[in-house]
Design a protein that fits this description.
The chain is mainly beta. The chain is about 5% helix and about 50% strand. Strands 1-3-4-5-6-7-8-9-10-11-12-13-14-15-16-17 form a 16-stranded antiparallel β-barrel. It is globular, with a radius of gyration of 21 Å.
Length: about 375
């Protein structure tokens, strides 16, 4: 397997042939991945229905390499390279970069924490998304909690503290969050992320704060985009319950909210960017049933702005019901149905007050 991987990378031009013959994988090298695909029917009011393959119905498809080397005296060197892709086409997910989901290297110590340098998720996204019960495509926690959606920043430094009596803290800073790569740091969009996590057996509790510092903010921007997230989950064995709240202001910190008003960013609607606030709530329940689980999740996002025509922006709601069945420790069958009101798959808040229905089924395999 190792020789095959090195030969494949050499054929792709990532390493020279002589390197492929001479190189030996380092200690603790792991090759891993997920392939997830299914079939779904999606109907959006005013747009009709669409059916076909669904990429990542339960979880994103990806492959990656990660490794750890023991340096002695409690120190270790670590790295991760991770790439997302769409099984239906074989194309990279989101963008064309090879390791779009992660590319970082760092040092860790049992007493001083874990320092990571490179492209990676923010502390807020990492901690917040751990509260998600049902991650169904386009209808998971990230549909209303955009700071917990799947996004990554380049040129980022993250530090995670050691765990102390169940507590762990994290802080991160991105020097060039949107990849503009201008020479002067102040001419690039920067991001800061901090979080606190408590985990003890069945209990998980998190609190996060993030802020985006735009190099060239849109005209009439209300301020710096920021997001606060607070939540907890508890596994009662007969069921697992998750509760969360978020306040997002002046646009989405992850630049993952679309650009319906062509502001030139992924900050979301112009009314939101120009001083708007979104309060979001989430309730999720997982109930074990046989070799699988029934997953129920509901979230609501309440905006406080008016549209350009003077109409009040209505609450967006997303509700899902699904079932996962484990064929083996690595292969899962799933089926789900979701309903979203005042929400489309392109825009979190729909001025036309439309709704979206999706029914899907598929298989997810981990290796």
């Amino acid at each position: 397997m190792r020789i095959a991987l090195l030969a494949a990378f050499a054929a792709a031009g990532l390493v020279q042939p002589w390197q492929a013959r001479a190189a030996e994988p380092g200690p603790g090298l792991q090759f891993y991945g997920i392939v997830d695909a299914g079939l779904a029917v999606t109907k959006t009011s005013g747009q009709g229905s669409r059916s076909g393959l669904l990429d990542g119905g339960l979880t994103d498809s990806l492959w990656g390499l990660q490794g750890t080397e023991d340096l002695g005296s409690g120190w270790s060197a670590r790295f991760q390279l991770e790439s997302g892709f769409d099984p239906s086409s074989g194309n990279a997910a989101d963008d064309a970069s090879l390791f779009n989901y992660g590319a970082w290297v760092g040092l860790a110590h049992e007493h001083y924490g874990d320092l990571r340098l490179g492209r990676q998720t923010t502390v807020g996204q990492t901690y917040g998304s751990a509260l998600e019960i049902a991650s169904w495509k386009d209808m998971g926690m990230g549909a209303t909690f955009k700071a917990s959606d799947n996004y990554q920043f380049s040129n980022m430094v993250n530090w995670y503290s050691p765990q102390w009596r169940g507590f762990q803290a994290g802080v991160g800073y991105a020097f060039d969050a949107d990849g503009q790569e201008r020479f002067r740091t102040s001419q690039n969009t920067r991001a800061i992320s901090v979080g606190l996590k408590y985990e003890d057996g069945p209990l998980l509790a998190v609190a996060t704060w993030e802020q985006l510092r735009l190099a060239n903010p849109p005209a009439d921007a209300g301020g710096r985009p920021q997001a606060v997230q607070v939540g907890a989950s508890y596994d009662f064995e007969v069921l697992k319950l998750s509760l969360a709240w978020s306040r997002q202001r002046n646009g989405y910190v992850g630049l993952d909210g679309g650009d319906p008003d062509e502001l030139g960013f992924g900050l979301g609607p112009a009314a939101f960017v120009r001083g708007g606030t979104v309060d979001a709530w989430l309730v999720g329940v997982s109930v074990p049933v046989g070799r699988g689980a029934v997953l129920v999740q509901w979230s609501l996002a309440r905006p406080d702005w008016y549209w350009a025509d003077g109409m009040t922006a209505r609450n967006a709601q997303v509700a899902t019901l699904g079932y996962t069945y484990d064929l083996s420790p690595r292969t899962t069958l799933y089926a789900f149905a979701g309903y979203a009101s005042n929400y489309t798959l392109d825009n979190q808040f729909d001025p036309a007050n439309g709704h979206t229905v999706r029914v899907g089924t598929g298989v997810s395999h981990r290796f």
